[in-house]
Write a structure and sequence with these properties.
alpha+beta; Umud Fragment, subunit A; eight-stranded antiparallel sheet; four-stranded antiparallel sheet; about 20% strand; transmembrane; signal peptidase activity; membrane
């Protein structure tokens, strides 16, 4: 049996491969991270997006600081339905102006990356979440003798999701009698007496309507805290008797 040492030419590839090992590992990790960020970006942009709830305007359906996922894809094909809980960009003047000092570059980069992968929802403060009550062409009126909102002449029994006081059978009345224009919707919060929604912006240029193009998507699940994990009910049965147009 030969006991001669391996020749330099034979041993060189093995040593070179061993020397490149850590760099190959780091390269693979970097590629995996970049792919994960790209996939998360695509998911956030076109499929699902995470938001947290900054106020109590949708109680008891959504509590302050709940985290939700929003379906951005399905409404692009099927549109929206009355009763959907929707997240939308401020139509203008609904939210108070806020000033955020510029972040250091490193902090901004970390915030951007974590928002892509759904660990944060840094733009939640720039969006609102409400229940869709009126679609384009709907005639929405407050209120009948029972204090109920009517849509195309049909009263809505919203008792299953409205937050009311112990002595209340209906929210405080705030007059509105509107016909929703094309490409817009009328929205209201489930905590009707504590929700700055379409009703409170009728005197603004948009007259309280939310352009459909401002809607990010339909909220469909609560993800946090874990004891509130569950689907978000659109209560579409409440609107099942509403015709597409008001009977003449």
């Amino acid at each position: 049996m030969s006991t001669e040492p391996a020749s330099p030419s034979t041993d060189l590839p093995a040593r070179a491969k061993a020397g490149r090992g850590p760099w190959l590992f780091l390269r693979d990790i970097l590629v995996i991270l970049l792919v994960a960020i790209l996939v998360s970006f695509l998911v956030k942009t076109f499929l699902v997006r995470s938001f947290y709830i900054p106020s109590g305007s949708m109680e008891n359906t959504l509590q302050e600081q709940d985290r939700i996922l929003v379906d951005e894809l399905t409404p692009r094909f099927g549109g929206y339905d009355r009763g959907d809980v929707v997240v939308f960009r401020d139509p203008g003047g609904w939210l108070p102006a806020t000033y955020e000092p510029p972040q250091p570059p490193l902090a901004a980069a970390v915030d951007w990356i974590t928002s892509l992968v759904g660990l944060t929802a840094s733009d939640s403060e720039d969006h609102l979440v409400k229940r869709l009550i009126g679609l384009p062409g709907d005639h929405v009126v407050c209120c009948n003798a029972l204090g109920q909102t009517t849509v195309n002449g049909v009263p809505l029994d919203e008792a299953d999701y409205l937050k009311l006081g112990a002595s209340q059978s209906a929210p405080r009345e705030l007059e509105y009698d509107v016909t929703v224009p094309e490409d817009s919707v009328w929205v209201m919060g489930d905590n009707r007496d504590n929700s700055q929604d379409s009703r409170y912006h009728q005197d603004q240029p948009g007259q309280g309507f939310v352009p459909i193009e401002n809607i990010v998507g339909r909220a469909f699940i609560k993800t946090w805290p874990l004891d509130r994990l569950g689907m978000i009910d659109g209560h579409h049965d409440v609107f099942s008797g509403v015709p597409d147009t008001e009977p003449q």
